[in-house]
Structure formats: C-alpha cells, structure tokens
Amino acid sequence: MQTLKIKFLIIIAAGFVASSAHAALADYIFFEPGDKAGAGLAWQPAGAEFQLQAPPQAVTQAIEVHVNINPSLSQLPQAIAEGPVYELSVMSDQEKFDQALEFLLPVESTPGLVWWLQQDSEWNLQWGFKDINGSLYAAFKLTQPGVYNLVLARDADKEIIVTSKADKSFATSLFSITLPDDITLGSVVKLQHLAAGNVPIPKGLVSPIYQYDLIGFSVADIASKLVSVTLPYYLSDYQGRDLVFFDKRLGEWRTVPSINNLQKQTVTGKLPFTYAVVALVENPNVFDGVASWYAYKACACAAARFWPKQSKLKVTNLANGLSKIVRLNDYGPEEWTGRLIDLDSTVFKAISSLWRGLINVRVEEV
C-alpha cells in the first residue's frame, strides 16, 4: 500500500491536544480531548484538499486517524472515478461518536462528484453535500470508528433509445425519471450531470446538478401528462429538501412541488418539460420527519423540540397534502424516538387516520 506522502497541517479548536509522539508519520495523527471536550476539531493535510471535521461534543475520548492512498480500485457501478482511493482508518475507545465526523472534499468546479464507500468488496454511493462559507464540499459522515475506503466519482451519463412502450423509467445511479404512457418508440432519453459554469449553483445545494433531454417526444403530451423526476439524498436529518429546476427565461432556480420519501430518502416532483435542469436543495424554513399522536386536550396543539413554546406551525401530511395549523404547547418527542413532532389526536385525525399511528409530515413556522 502506498502511503500518502504529505505533511499534516493540524488545526485544533481549544480543548483538543495533538500528540507530537508520531509527528514524523505522514499518515498518522492523534487527538486527545483536553479539559474542554466541548470544542470541535478540524484537520487538513497540507497540500491536500480533503479535511476531517468534528463538531463540538462529537469526540469525548482519544481518537487516532490514519490516511493512506490505496492503489487498488475495483469497478464502480455506473460511475467514473475522478481521484485516488483514500483508506481512512479511525480508531477510538468511543464505540459511537456523539455527533458524526465528516470527511470533506471541495467539488465546486465539478458538482457531479460524490463519495463512494467500499463495504465487503462492494462500492456503495454515499450521497451528501455541505456548504461551508459559500463553498461546496462532497461530505461523508463517520458515525463510528472503523476502516473506510473512499473514492470520489462522477455519475456516468446515459443515453437510451426507447425500444418498448413498457420502458417508462430510466436512471443513472443517482438520478431517475419516469415518463407518462404512450411514449414514442425510437425516441431518445438523455440523462447527464451538469458541470459548474453552465448554470449558477443554487443556494443550499445537496445533490449534483442534472439535466434530462427527451428527444422525439411530444411536447404537448409531456406538458399535459408530466415527467416524474426523483433524486436521492444521503445525509439524514430533519432538514426539509426540495426539488428545483433552472428557469432559463428568468435566469433563476424555481421550486417544484415535491414529496420527500423519508424511508427511501428520495425527493420526487413532476415537470411539464421535455428538457430541464434539476437539483436538490435544502429548505431552511421547513423540517421533514415522522409525526405521532397522543390524547391530550383535544386541541390544535403539539409537542416539538426545534421551536419555542407557543410557536404557530403548519403541519402537512406528505402522503396526501392535508395540513393543519397547530400551537406548540409542550416539548418533545425526545431525539432517540426518531420522531419530529407529537400531534394532539384531534390534529392527527384531521390529516390522517389514528390507526396509522405514525405519518411523514412537513412542519413549517407560520
């Protein structure tokens, strides 16, 4: 295995001490929490673009990190490697980090790049992006110690000739579309990632930018029957995500009415165009997650932890679009439950059936 021959530049927030015992080793660094374990850390090898970051409270015990370049690279599914394979070894007595560590690499010039992780000799997509001071990074989250083989790769473009009327769904490893019925045989579907510079980067981007082009299709049919577009996401949290398309006439990104499938971690929307440039963005004004119900006071009220008490919230059932305005009068549910909000049974019944118990919702302050 070829060792990564670079000298490490260590940037450590107060509360973390870097051991100098192994300073001569180019592929090794050791962090030990000091008296103020609440501080975060950031580490970037000099001469390399990638960095490892940990938020405050993530690391509470000593952590040891080795980085090497792995010369071996097995075939990536539907993707083209754009750099070396990084072997990242993370060792700690901490079985699971309180908050995820992030392995970051800037992809501003080529937003079609994403991390792939090798597990049991299989490469799996690790979809995720992060905006740091206006710069876009491909992000891989580490939640526990281990050995990780990572490579940055670009999704392979596709051009498909329609040979059967049953062929309605077309996909790359990251991007898929579903066409309406009665498509024309011999028509062509092009799915491509779009390099930076062709369109402005939308604020809050969390996906590569893609374009689809339907050649030989009826513009009128597509406009009336719509194209279903689906993009996945990897970084799992409660932040709302929206599908957007670039409006060339207005020169701006516009939001597409879409559904966030929390179980599949995909966002799907419908467009009336034979050609479109699309992407996925975070919506800082909304949260998507699971809602439960409890018999409280038969009122339009709820319990949540992301807003102060007495906040007025709009809760929308992602499955049917029904919504209800509630007043926040309690704290909960706890983080370990995996739920975003608890609704009074009166509210839950207005947007779903009580027997469902749990539903996926979008919550926004009004």
Give the structure's gist in a few sentences:
By secondary structure, the protein is mainly beta. The protein contains 2 helices and 30 strands. The longest helix is centred in the middle third of the chain and has 7 residues, at 219-225.
Describe the structure.
The chain has helices spanning 219-225, 345-351, and strands spanning 2-3, 8-12, 16-18, 28-33, 41-45, 51-54, 63-70, 79-92, 101-106, 113-119, 122-126, 129-132, 135-142, 146-155, 158-161, 169-171, 176-178, 188-193, 210-215, 227-232, 239-247, 252-256, 258-261, 266-271, 275-294, 301-304, 312-317, 323-330, 341-344, 359-365. The N and C termini lie far apart (56 Å). The chain folds into 3 domains: 2-154, Sandwich (Chondroitinase Ac, Chain A, domain 3), CATH 2.60.220; 158-284, Chondroitinase Ac, Chain A, domain 3 (Sandwich); 295-365, Barwin-like endoglucanases. By secondary structure, it is mainly beta. Helices cover 4% and strands 51% of the residues. Strands 1, 3, 4, 7, 8, 10, 11 and 14 form an 8-stranded antiparallel sheet that branches. Strands 2-5-6-9-13-12 form a 6-stranded antiparallel sheet, with no helix packed on it. It has a 6-stranded mixed barrel with strand order 25-29-26-28-27-30.
Uncertain residue segments: 1-26
- What is the CATH T-level topology of the largest domain? Chondroitinase Ac, Chain A, domain 3
CATH top level assignment of the largest domain: Mainly Beta
Computed Rg: 23 Å
Largest sheet: 8 strands, antiparallel
Q: How would you describe the shape?
A: flat
Number of domains: 3
Q: What is the average of the pLDDT values?
A: 80
